[in-house]
Specification:
- It is a single chain.
- The protein is α+β, with helices and mostly antiparallel strands.
- It has 2 domains: 73 residues, no CATH class; 54 residues, no CATH class.
- Helices cover 32% and strands 9% of the residues.
- The chain has 4 helices and 3 strands.
- It has a 3-stranded mixed β-sheet.
- The longest helix has 18 residues.
- It binds flavin-adenine dinucleotide (FAD).
Length: 141
């Protein structure tokens, strides 16, 4: 297995169901001690609780619990769950200096949508840059 962490930028997370229910991350040691070994060797032990939205996680747990009625044991401690951690933060749009997209005229990206920073000051600054630019285009300043 590659490494241990709660979040990662590549690959998928693997976690024991027991760890997920106890809200603690799976570690390589905990997984090695199990009877079942992950078939996806490159998966990284971690905590899916940090990667998936709460409501989706609850739905998955409920589904596993119901599945246990059909296939007893699925809701056991050593069931392995794989899940991706998907971040949109790094998605970047190609922009001009005035934050207008290179591809579409008069379409601007601001704030978190720019994909460079995350913060209220930067978001506000984006708004000012774009507003000034539109006013300039409209001959209002
Ligand atoms: C829990 C938390 C704590 C944070 N703490 C800090 C902090 O301490 N300091 C800091 O600098 N930054 C902090 N941030 C980050 C900061 O809030 C964001 O970077 C900033 O708000 C981004 O501004 P924005 O205008 O890009 O997006 P947002 O503030 O998210 O505004 C987007 C708006 O668009 C609306 N919207 C979405 N979809 C649609 C649609 N289809 N139609 C119409 N409207 C829509 C949303 O309702 C929302 O009002 C925090 C973020 C979070 C989640």
């Amino acid at each position: 297995m590659a490494r241990q962490c709660n979040a990662l930028g590549e690959g998928v997370i693997v976690q024991r169901l027991k760890d997920l229910k106890e809200n603690r991350r799976s570690t390589e040691k905990r997984i090695m001690e199990m009877n079942i070994q992950p078939t996806l060797k490159e998966a990284t032990p971690g905590n899916l609780g940090y990667a998936l939205p709460y409501t989706q996680l609850q739905a998955i747990l409920e589904m596993i619990s119901l599945l246990d009625g059909i296939t007893p044991g699925v809701d056991g401690p050593d069931t392995l769950l794989y899940g991706p951690e998907i971040k949109w933060y790094s998605s970047r749009t190609e922009l001009k200096n005035n934050l207008e997209t290179l591809k579409y005229n008069n379409l601007y990206c601001a704030g978190d949508g720019v994909g460079i920073t995350r913060g209220i000051v930067q978001a506000a600054q984006c708004g000012i840059i774009i507003a000034n630019n539109i006013m300039e285009k409209e001959g209002l300043c």
